[in-house]
């Protein structure tokens, strides 16, 4: 997809390598809903298993949404939840396969793939999901939702914002609080986004040499 108009930072080094979690934001900054949708659109360029795109978003950007968000997160996450411009809950969708045909039919209609290729995809992948057990569907959707979450963190920085990924919330409360089917949607991550009001901790990483084998 083409870059959207509100991208402020196109530097890989800056956007990815200098990202740090920010947990205190300028509370009066509002991100327009158009731009929040742009962030999500950019994030959803993420890869996903079989292009199932097994993710779902709940955006909390006003008093009502922020109160709901506050009611589900653990107290140590109140500072970022209460000061951010928006906190976006990312959930895995264990039933994404129900609309799987749409995306491939559209690609076929647009001439991106042949009907033969589309049918091959349907025959190869759909049975895996239509007959998949819950563990498989949950795991797959959580991986997709994690991938898109990472992209959303980077998209936030590309738009000149900072972010904090957080999973410190009561997972059992997420679906009922946001009116979602808890059999279908699995909470994966919440991402608080805004303009920073603190200098973040400069976190460090283990040496990759200690974590890596060449087989
Ligand atoms: C799965 C996951 C859960 C996290 N949960 C929280 C959280 O509940 N609260 C929080 O402040 N940060 C949370 N974080 C952010 C991490 O603490 C942070 O990414 C890590 O300390 C490295 O710091 P950095 O993001 O600045 O590089 C979480 C990150 C991940 C990936």
Summarize this entry quickly.
The chain contains eight helices and four strands; from the N terminus they run ααβααβαααβαβ.
Verbal overview:
The protein is an alpha+beta fold and 215 residues long. The chain has a single domain (21-196), classed as NADH Oxidase (3-Layer(aba) Sandwich), CATH 3.40.109.10. The protein is built from eight helices and four strands. The chain has a four-stranded antiparallel beta sheet. Helix 2 (33-43) packs across helix 7 (134-158). It is globular and about 55 Å long. The model has no long low-confidence stretch (mean pLDDT 96). The site of flavin mononucleotide has 11 residues, from strand 3.
Q: What brief labels describe this structure?
A:
single chain; 215 residues; alpha+beta; NADH Oxidase; 4-stranded antiparallel beta sheet; 42% helix; 13% strand; binds flavin mononucleotide
Give the ligands present: flavin mononucleotide
Taking the sheet with the most strands, its summary is:
4 strands, antiparallel
Count of β-strands:
4
| CATH superfamily grouping | NADH Oxidase
In quaternary terms, these chains amount to single chain
- Average per-residue pLDDT, rounded, comes to 96
Uncertain stretches: none
N-to-C CA distance: 36 Å
């Amino acid at each position: 997809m083409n870059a959207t108009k509100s991208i402020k930072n196109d530097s890989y080094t800056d956007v990815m390598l200098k990202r740090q979690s920010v947990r205190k934001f300028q509370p009066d900054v509002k991100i327009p809903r158009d731009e929040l949708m742009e962030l999500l659109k950019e994030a959803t360029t993420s890869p996903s298993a079989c292009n199932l795109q097994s993710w779902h978003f709940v955006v909390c950007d006003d008093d009502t949404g922020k109160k709901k968000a506050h009611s589900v997160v653990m107290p140590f996450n109140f500072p970022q939840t209460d000061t951010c411009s928006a906190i976006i809950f990312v959930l895995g969708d264990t039933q994404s396969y129900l609309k799987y045909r749409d995306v491939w039919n559209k690609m076929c209609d647009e001439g991106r793939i042949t009907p033969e290729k589309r049918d091959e995809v349907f025959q190869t992948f759909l049975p895996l999901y239509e007959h998949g057990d819950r563990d498989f569907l949950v795991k797959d959707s959580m991986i997709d939702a994690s991938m898109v979450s990472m992209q959303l963190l980077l998209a936030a920085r590309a738009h000149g914002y900072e972010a904090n990924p957080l999973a410190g919330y009561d997972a059992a409360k997420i679906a009922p609080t946001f009116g979602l089917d808890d059999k279908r949607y699995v909470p994966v991550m919440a991402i608080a986004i805004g303009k920073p009001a603190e200098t973040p901790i400069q976190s460090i990483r283990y040496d990759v040499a200690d974590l890596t084998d060449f087989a």
